[in-house]
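Query structure, 225 tokens:
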């Protein structure tokens, strides 16, 4: 699917960074489009990372905008507080929200872009009417919870359908993919319609994260046609 003129964005996930040296790790990705911060609570996903106080501090020192991916229960209560921390975008899982439309509106009202995430097994069709309420749709390409997993090709048709719906409705919604993005899989995800790529191990696992970002961006952009 040709997307001439659309920028291919690379958002490195700090889940694969050295948590003891976060400020230095952020400086290593200063050419990224945003930094992706994975918040996990050991309830919505079986893993625990960082919470609001640490995310607030990262936002203060980050050289690039902050993109929070909330993998937490009770997200209707928590997500607005992340928006208040001055983040560029706050993404909640629809499976964890009791009122996704209300929540997306609240995030925007508090000055953050509103992102909504779907687990690999969650269908996109029930939520297509919600597109005008969103700035970003995140299609998980691994089961949320851990970095370093293999890309799930089974998610590609969903990415294609989401891209077609976005184009069909004429809304300005970014399509993000997260999990297992590498120099190889980014081409498939980009061809299917994604335009923001989260990459943890494929950036921080390389000797030069900056070069890894440039290389991934070039591959994704090429696949846009
Ligand atoms: O949200 C998640 C995992 O739940 C991701 O953001 C991962 O952190 C991406 O890591 P890689 O698959 O790129 O190593
Ligand atoms: Fe993530």
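Result returned for the query:
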């Amino acid at each position: 699917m040709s997307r001439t003129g659309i920028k291919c964005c690379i958002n490195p996930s700090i889940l694969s960074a050295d948590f003891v040296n976060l400020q230095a790790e952020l400086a290593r990705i200063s050419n990224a489009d945003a930094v992706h911060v994975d918040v996990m609570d050991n309830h919505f996903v079986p893993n625990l990372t960082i919470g609001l106080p640490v995310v607030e501090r990262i936002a203060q020192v980050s050289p690039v905008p902050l993109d929070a991916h909330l993998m937490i229960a009770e997200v209707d209560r928590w997500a607005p507080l992340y928006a208040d921390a001055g983040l560029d975008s706050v993404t909640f899982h629809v499976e964890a929200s009791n009122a996704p439309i209300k929540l997306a509106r609240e995030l925007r009202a508090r000055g953050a872009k509103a992102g909504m995430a779907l687990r690999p097994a969650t269908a996109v069709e029930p939520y297509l009417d919600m597109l005008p309420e969103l700035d970003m749709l995140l299609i998980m390409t691994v089961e949320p919870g851990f970095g370093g997993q293999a890309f799930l090709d089974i998610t590609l048709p969903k990415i294609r359908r989401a891209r077609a719906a976005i184009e069909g409705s004429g809304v300005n919604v970014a399509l993000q993919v997260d999990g297992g993005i590498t120099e190889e899989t980014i081409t498939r995800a980009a061809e299917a319609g994604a335009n923001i790529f989260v990459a943890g191990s494929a950036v921080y696992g390389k000797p030069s994260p900056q070069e890894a970002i440039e290389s991934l961006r070039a591959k994704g952009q090429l696949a846009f046609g």
